[in-house]
Amino acid sequence: MDGLHDADVLAGAVIQQVEKNGTSLLDGCSETCLSHTWERQASAMWRTQVMHDSGDATYEREFRKQIVRKDLETMLEPPTTSPSASL
After folding, report:
1. CA-CA distance, 18 to 12, in Å (whole number)?
2. pLDDT value of position 81
3. Is residue 70 within a helix (H) or strand (E), and if so which, with residue range?
4. Rounded CA gap, 4 and 17, in Å?
5. What are the phi and psi torsion angles at 8 (to 5°)?
6. Mean pLDDT score of the chain
7. What is the pLDDT of residues 49-86, one digit of tens each?
8. Burial zone of 52 (CB within 10 Å; 0-12 exposed, 13-18 middle, 19+ buried)
9. What percent of the chain has pLDDT over 70?
């Protein structure tokens, strides 16, 4: 639902830019949308911690170790060429 809100905010900003050559909504898009985006991220992280801890701290450490391992693998992978990059 929040993704639809963000899309609506961006659409309104683009319409304002095209129809009235106004940039105030575009200039404020990030500020308008980022706060609740970070709230969703924090909430998702909390739920993940709760589900994977289950009262056993050793289990949480293993979960975090696997997440960090995957993050490092992703960082070290060579960048992929996106279809739009070849245009």
Report:
1. 10
2. 63
3. helix 57-76
4. 20
5. -65, -40
6. 79
7. 777 766 666 666 777 788 888 888 888 888 776 555 55
8. middle
9. 79
Query: pTM, whole model, 2 decimals?
Result: 0.45
Closest by Cα among 44, 45, 12, 46 to 29: 12
- What tokens appear for 84 in the block? 């739009």
Evaluate if residue 42 carries a pLDDT over 70.
Answer: yes
The 10 Å Cβ neighbour count of residue 13 is 19
Q: Which residues, including other chains, have CB under 8 Å from residue 55's CB and lie 6 or more apart? A: none
Look at residues 22, 34, 26, 31 and name the one whose alpha carbon lies nearest to residue 10.
Answer: 26
Integer Cα distance of 22 and 82 in angstroms: 32
Helix (H, G, I), strand (E, B) or coil at 54: coil
With a CB cutoff of 8 Å and minimum separation 6, the contacts of 23 are 16, 17
Residue type, 28: G
